[in-house]
Design goal:
The chain is an alpha/beta fold. The chain has helices at 61-72, 88-104, 139-147, 163-172, 186-198, 221-228, 245-255, 304-313, 318-333; strands spanning 3-10, 15-22, 26-31, 39-42, 44-49, 51-52, 55-56, 76-81, 111-112, 115-117, 151-156, 176-179, 203-205, 234-236, 259-261, 274-278, 281-286, 289-291, 349-352, 358-363, 366-367. β2 and β3 (26-31) form a beta hairpin. The longest helix is centred in the first third of the chain and has 17 residues, at 88-104.
Length: 369
């Protein structure tokens, strides 16, 4: 059954007033005047999200459904529930739960594309807010994770023992390999990027600037390797706490369509200030910032609609901001059927009012918010 939306349609490179006609897919974009003062964007894609609405990926199927519906309300139509560093058996339980949700879907919810395996293949020296259950990516563990059929992105510290073999194996299995929670230097990051590409894979960086060494004049670090690459993508948590707006503008200028926003959202996203939990650790939410007792930043309570508004505040145009929350992630994840408003793509839309607040969310041509 054909439906339509009227408003200011945010295309890849411009905004046009008109109407979008669609069923499960976009059929036609018709320019017209006199449309409502609202913005129609491609549905948002979050490739790194631990929780929200009081739920956490590590809690299993029901929690994954809860957090997915929560983020749908903030415009996210495709989501990758994300693990945290935990005992391996618990990580595998979480992956199997994501696989189950992927297979049956979330009724009235967003699309579940698969899992982001953020832990436990991370450096013990760059844990950030990850609990200290880090382990090495042995061939057996890689094979067990891949066998779930749901891992779409894996975060790896490339300096770990077995990491080169693991990165190659993940890449050959079609899993995006994201460098993160790492002490590697510029040269180590460049070698990892080349290794993944040589294996036919796609490479990224997990929350650019965070849990990796900074850019210095004589020690450029992995951030520089990722930004200077012609092929590497980079996630960013743009809540303005994890990354300064000037650093965001630098990365966007360098990476362009290879930069994408993620939330790294935790269980307490959407809840009031106060104590919460992240991977079994006590954290405190205060004034929009989440910290461990020692003051370390601990995930975020960001939503992608807020990240988009932050980008607008930092001087981005709306088409550019839309690419950061949708188009670029679709390209990174190889999702050629979504991420833009164009004929024959999926009818996944996030509609914003004139204050850039979410007013409607559509998935597969059905209104769900």
């Amino acid at each position: 059954m054909m439906a339509h939306l009227e408003g200011r349609i945010v295309l890849r490179d411009r905004i046009v007033s008109g109407r979008v006609d669609f069923d499960s897919h976009i059929r036609e974009i018709v320019p017209q005047s006199g449309v409502p003062e609202r913005y129609i964007l491609p549905g948002f894609i979050d490739g790194h999200v631990h929780g929200g609405g009081g739920a956490d990926t590590m809690d299993g199927v029901a929690a994954i459904e809860t957090l997915s519906r929560f983020h749908l309300g903030h415009g996210t139509t495709t989501i990758l529930p994300t693990t945290i560093t935990a005992p391996w058996a618990e990580v595998m339980d979480a992956l199997r739960a994501v696989a189950e949700v992927c297979e049956r879907g979330v009724e009235g919810g967003p699309r579940i594309h698969g899992a982001h395996l953020e832990g436990p293949f991370v450096s013990p020296h760059k844990l950030g807010a990850q609990p200290p259950f880090n382990i090495e990516p042995t061939a057996e563990r890689v094979a067990e994770a891949v066998a779930t059929g749901c891992v779409r992105v894996v975060t790896i510290a490339p300096e770990l023992d077995h990491a080169p073999t693991a990165m190659k194996a993940f890449a050959q299995a079609g899993v995006r390999v994201s460098l993160g929670h790492t002490t590697t230097d510029f040269e180590g990051a460049e070698r990892a990027i080349c290794l993944v590409c040589a294996a036919g894979g796609t490479v990224g960086g997990t929350h650019l600037f965070n849990a990796m060494s900074a850019i210095e004049g004589r020690r450029p670090g992995p951030v520089t390797a990722l930004m200077c690459s012609d092929v590497a993508y980079g996630e960013m948590i743009f809540d303005t706490h994890h990354v300064h707006p000037a650093s965001f503008r630098l990365a966007e200028r360098m990476m362009g369509q290879r930069l994408l926003f993620v939330t790294d959202a935790m269980r307490g996203t959407g809840e009031a200030d106060g104590p919460s939990q992240l991977g079994g650790q006590d954290v405190m939410i205060r004034n929009g910032v989440v910290r461990l007792p020692d003051g370390t930043l601990a995930g975020s309570i960001l939503t992608l609609d807020q990240a988009l508004r932050n980008a607008l505040d930092a001087g981005m145009s709306l088409p550019k901001a839309a690419r950061l929350v949708s188009t670029n992630a679709a390209a990174y994840l190889g999702l050629q059927d979504r991420g833009a408003i164009a004929p024959d793509l999926l009818a996944d839309f996030t509609v914003l009012d004139d204050r850039f607040q979410v007013s409607e969310v559509w998935v597969n041509g059905e209104r769900r918010v």
